[in-house]
Amino acid sequence: xxxxxxxxxxxxxxxxxxxxxxxxxxxxxxxxxxxxxxxxxxxxxxxxxxxxxxxxxxxxxxxxxxxxxxxxxxxxxxxxxxxxxxxxxxxxxxxxxxxxxxxxxxxxxxxxxxxxxxxxxxxxxxxxxxxxxxxxxxxxxxxxxxxxxxxxxxxxxxxxxxxxxxxxxxxxxxxxxxxxxxxxxxxxxxxxxxxxxxxxxxxxxxxxxxxxxxxxxxxxxxxxxxxxxxxxxxxxxxxxxxxxxxxxxxxxxxxxxxxxxxxxxxxxxxxxxxxxxxxxxxxxxxxxxxxxxxxxxxxxxxxxxxxxxxxxxxxxxxxxxxxxxxxxxxxxxxxxxxx
Length: 339
Known about the structure:
Helix content: 55-70%
Oligomer: single chain
Order of helices and strands: HHHHHHHHHHHHHHHHEEE
Strand order of the largest sheet: 2-1-3
């Protein structure tokens, strides 16, 4: 026996022992990796089955899935998404996720399904999906951003702010996001009195200029006198729609009379009698000239452009309804006939 196996004092024994330990470790690690992937896949399918029973109208027994169907069905789902037929798009994504074996493709489709639930307003479903994605891919920046949007829509601002830290770790610029969420948290906090909210917003509008338009709009609702004192005369074009739509009862004539642009706006609107044509805003000056000449039939209509996705909207927004961007609004006015 001693002639077959090397003595433990023999260097060969140590080499064999090291090789054996390495082999066992490699085999165990590989086996654990396979088990972990299988468990993750099973967990994902079990998670999706909660949605499948009530939403998925595709029957795998009738429509036999083939890999060549992946791309055209994905395009079809996107076309339904664009046209606003979210339910049909959701059905297709559930069918694809259920029948696709590639785990990476499943993850991508799962992320798109989460975005679709978010657009369709199924916030709890979107939240569960993004949390599930981040459980297996914690560095997924897109899912982190979308989860923060879901928490914002659910008025869970503390949880939304918690997402800022991992985004910072991933070297993302989160200044606008953090400022916006902190602003929303102030507004939604019922423990803050009206006066306290106004004081906080006054400080925020000075310290965080990216929130200027949003906060000024709120100040005109909370206390229009403070809003007029806060108005930045160099940024009137950004808030022209807010100023134009103010009721006459919320005007501060003392401030307006001292500023040519404001005087021209409200002369064109018909709120003041003294003629003034010095706004440097083409459409406003044209209305003022027309009114001065006796043709008081003009008005202003407004369109809102997202500077990121370049989509136009008829209503103002804080977040773009299409791409969810913050601080991306551009106000565009046009002359229209009075109703």
